[in-house]
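User: Sequence recovery, please. Input:
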């Protein structure tokens, strides 16, 4: 694994294209996005305003949904959920209140090592977007996972 660049969040036209899937959710078409993407609704850490981002689900199990901060620890959504971890996610047609919990680097390494063999093309593309050149080995993906922040979104009990 080799670091080829430290990418920043997209700007200009790339930012608009990157944020386009949010419109699908706003028009009630979130179910078209499948289970691999989720709409995260959170509060801006400075403004306190409602913010949204569509992020990829790396893993889903009985403990919740896991996503990686592809633009690193400086990504706005990542910084925002660290400050205000009670957020909402929409996966497919389901909207859930969840609590965002950052994962330790070793857990992120193992997540990425499991994700890459299941989704090899997506893992290679995701690694490139995040600024890493990988040889395709599990060891390389494990190293990428150590350097990328992961967050688990755990469902909160809802009041009845």
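Assistant: Recovered sequence (160 residues):
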């Amino acid at each position: 694994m080799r670091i080829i660049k430290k990418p920043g969040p997209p700007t200009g036209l790339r930012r608009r294209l990157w944020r386009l899937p949010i419109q699908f959710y706003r028009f009630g078409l979130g179910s078209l996005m499948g289970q691999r993407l989720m709409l995260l609704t959170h509060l801006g850490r400075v403004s306190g305003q409602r913010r949204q981002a569509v992020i990829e689900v790396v893993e889903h199990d009985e403990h919740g949904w896991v996503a990686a901060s592809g633009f690193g620890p400086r990504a706005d959504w990542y910084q925002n959920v660290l400050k205000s971890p009670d957020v909402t996610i929409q996966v497919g047609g389901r909207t859930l209140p969840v609590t965002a919990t950052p994962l330790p680097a070793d857990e992120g390494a193992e997540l990425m090592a499991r994700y890459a063999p299941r989704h090899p093309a997506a893992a290679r593309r995701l690694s490139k977007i995040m600024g890493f050149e990988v040889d395709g080995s599990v060891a390389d993906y494990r190293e990428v996972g150590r350097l990328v922040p992961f967050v688990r979104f755990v469902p909160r009990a809802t009041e009845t």
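Residues 124 and 136 are 7 Å apart (CA to CA).
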